[in-house]
Design a protein that fits this description.
- The chain is an alpha+beta fold.
- The chain is built from three helices and 13 strands.
- The chain has a six-stranded mixed sheet, covered by helices on one side. A five-stranded mixed sheet has the order 10-13-1-12-11.
- Strand 8 (about 115) and strand 9 form a beta hairpin.
- The longest helix has 11 residues, at about 70-80.
């Protein structure tokens, strides 16, 4: 089974916060903690620049995965044990941010490569261990605050349903 990193593409409309003070909530995403007890539906709006199409998966917070209700309905059975579904507040669209709950220790440190500076350590070549979790469809690794990973089945579901907005990049496994 292959693993893919996922990112949203900016070729479609991008979401932004209506109120900057709500940024504190988005910073808590993807750390493995449930947020539903403190979550309030955050008001969001689409960028006003030229792009007219809204994708199924939407650029918003790099720490979570944002999607339309229609996309969520298609992938929910695959990811329901791996995420917490948190509503966003938009005037016309039913949107959700998926708080990824599992951070899996499966980075192959001996095969991966890093760029180290005074202030950060960045992964320049990512290699995951072959024993990476088969039962986690959507997960993160502790060494990367922004990285999101999925298995083939997720990728195939997205592609077979022509869902838009995600970029898949194959991840090498040792």
């Amino acid at each position: 089974m292959s693993i893919w990193s996922i990112n949203t593409t900016v070729q479609y409309k991008i979401l932004g916060l209506v109120n900057e003070e709500d940024a504190e909530f988005t910073l808590k995403l993807g750390q493995g903690n449930k947020l539903a007890s403190i979550w309030k539906p955050i008001p969001v709006s689409f960028d006003r620049e030229g792009k007219k199409v809204v994708s199924d998966f939407i650029e918003f917070s790099a720490k979570g995965l944002t999607c339309r209700k229609s996309a969520l309905d298609i992938i929910l059975d695959l990811i329901q044990d791996d995420v917490e579904i948190l509503p966003l507040r938009h005037a016309k669209e039913e949107l959700y941010i998926l708080n990824i709950l599992h951070r899996v220790n499966c980075l192959d440190h001996s095969q991966s490569e890093f760029e180290v500076s005074q202030h950060f350590k960045r992964i320049t070549k990512l290699v995951l261990q072959s024993k990476c979790p088969e039962k986690r469809m959507l997960f993160k690794i502790p060494e990367s605050a922004l990285g999101k990973f999925v298995h083939d089945e997720f990728k195939q579901r997205v592609e077979s349903n022509n869902l838009t907005g995600l970029i898949f990049k194959y991840v090498t496994q040792s």
